[in-house]
Amino acid sequence: MEKSKAIEAVVFGVVQGVGFRPFIYRTARNLKYSGWVKNIGFGVEIHLESETPCDFNNFIKALKHNKPPLARIEKIDIRSAAWFGCREFHIKKTGKGRSFVFISPDISICDNCHKEMNTSTDRRFLYPFINCTDCGPRYTIVNSLPYDREKTTMAGFKMCSNCQKEYSDPMDRRYHAQPIACPACGPQVPLLNTCPGNPISRGIKTATELLKSGNILAVKGLGGFHLVCDPFNKETVQKLRKIKARNYKPLALMAKDINAIKNYAHVSPEEKEQLCSPRRPIVLLKKKNDIPGIAPGLNELGFMLPYTPLHYLLLEDIELFIATSSNLKDSPIMKDENEGVGKLCDYILTHDRPISMRADDSVMKIFNSRPLFIRRARGYVPYPQAVPEQLKYSGQILALGGELKDTISVYKNGYVITSQFLGDLDEYQNFKYFQEAIAHLSRLFDIKPDVIVSDLHPDFHTTRYAEKSGLPHLQVQHHFAHILAPMLEHNIARKEKVLGIALDGFGYGNDGTAWGGEFLLADYSGYERFAHFEYLPLPGGDLAAKQPWRMSLAYLYNIFGRDLPALASLMKISPDKIKGVIRMIEQKLCCPQSSSCGRLFDAVSFLAGLAPIEVEFEAQAPMLLESCADSKINHGYEFELSRSSEKDSFKGPYIVSFSKTIKAIVKDIENQMSISELSAKFHNTLADIIVAVAIKCRQEHNINTVVLSGGVFLNKFLVQAAFKQLEKQDFHILRPVLYSPNDESISLGQIAFALEQKA
Ligand code: ZN
Ligand code: ZN
Ligand code: FE
After folding, report:
1. Is the same domain home to 488 and 514?
2. Domain range spanning residue 38?
3. Which ligand minimizes its atom distance to the CA of 180?
4. Are residue 73 and residue 139 in the same domain, yes or no?
5. Ligand 2 (ion): which residues have CB within 5 A?
6. Which stretches within 100-229 are classed as H helix?
7. pLDDT in tens, 58-112
């Protein structure tokens, strides 16, 4: 920067509602500059003056390196400005007008506030709503923007004079902290009895005692209620599982501190970093000392650390508790006592700060030192995703995602904002949540879409919603969207081609069949199916996903016909049922064709004796299989990779056939090979297939970038094996890091396609 007497700097990014203006104020004053700072429609504008010409570099450096923890700078535009001879530096009032401002996600209580809360002389001693500009709720309490107190769910609380003083003082760490509160003026925490909802006490201490004596409490957090109870009390855990109608699904734990976690699980430095980050996700950790009944049959436990002051107070003399979201099966997390949370628990520990937007806890594993998201929600939403320069578009886009594990995404001014996980939209309550999320994001970011995007599936609720909207409607094939999402995240250039490997349970293919083991040669504009898993019947359609033995039969029948091998796992099914399914397959009754990878996992998991006759949740059978895989085994089974029309001038896609694989698996089962070896060999086979197809694609198309996406890639064993093999062959590998590989990323991929069409 050339020397001048005044500059103007415009900062874009997450810079409002995060203590950015007071930080600028303090920095400018320290460096003896005069001028002003103010919020503008899309960021923060700074005017700096100096008595003598200078380059202001010390200021810009401080801006980049000492910024408040919640601020995220996307871009700074600096130019020289007119010199007005300002006397001092001050914070100017925000003007009115249309805006596009990023807001911070909800953030856990910071160290300063934590310390204050534990100081007996502080006026917020033990106050469960202590917060400051560096911490506390954001996304879940904002009704609309600009982010001012009146636009949040704190609007109903009138600040006391002490809070008002802190709020108005630029040197105070609560300057413009919108949720500012204290015991005199802020929200309270009544403990309710579930019957008529009468307060029985105001004590968090009482709540702790109730937890210790085996009660289930609903505790109101940031994005909704948790159901909280003692993980060591078998009866209570059983009761909780009955209430949630979940016998096997793993339950999340919240522990007092990292040492408490280490008593039960192994924690790597990277895992610790995520656990302790202000976003406070649930991190899946390898079991050390199992707590029976929490994650049956699996080798990991999901832990998180406290993130609200209330959590800390509850955990004062408890080591850990179960903290699972308060929802009925296939309904969203409850945010309000009136939604029936009383039916799920013995007592309710609630508070009177309303939740504007629901959000579940985020869940991740760590792979290669970076997150692998199973669920992206609280703490990460609504961070913006910049799109590649060549894809920028002047209009606005709304993408609706798929149907299971849905999210929505909106695009405006070069950024995509993806909603939190919304769940399975086939359920009425979740569909309402989907509508709430559209309304919320549209309001926050002032979105008026001129294009709407959905999946190709004609019967998805999202597709129908798009059709009814009356807007120009684009549709994107499911697996193509899976690949587009990480392409956008990793800033792949507009014309660049990649090999996208999308492995998942199910997505509607452009030939009307159920795809799920797909190798797509793709760029933003479209794809060619380079290879896919062989088609097999799904006996009973959707039922095949619930009852893994049906898939086992489909694979076995494909090889052995009616002459099925006598496997122990098949003995669990009555001969009549087996005959019935064989008949369905032979007569092609209710047997849609599918290349699903998830169903292959189901089949193998059942054959190996792991999967139950009927699964409780979608990924149960594959998770059981992954859990027992022995990482010391590094070879796989045989498979076939062939091209159906090798002789024709038109070469169709390669077909991956598992006949040899399944035959060998059956033999290994008959020879009583250990399940851990068998499982590892099966996983390694898929990694072998991935690299074999990638090599063919490189030979034929000179493509070196491989994108891995789809729910199957939540399988850490498989991701690890695939990475190892692909790296050995020098492939450039991309996988989703900021988003989940599962269907949560579909809406982001849909935006990428729409941008390519519009740019
Ligand atoms: Zn704080
Ligand atoms: Zn107050
Ligand atoms: Fe999918």
Report:
1. no
2. 4-91
3. 2
4. no
5. 160, 163, 182, 184-185
6. 111-117, 161-168, 204-212
7. 999 999 999 998 899 989 999 999 999 999 999 988 766 556 788 899 999 999 9
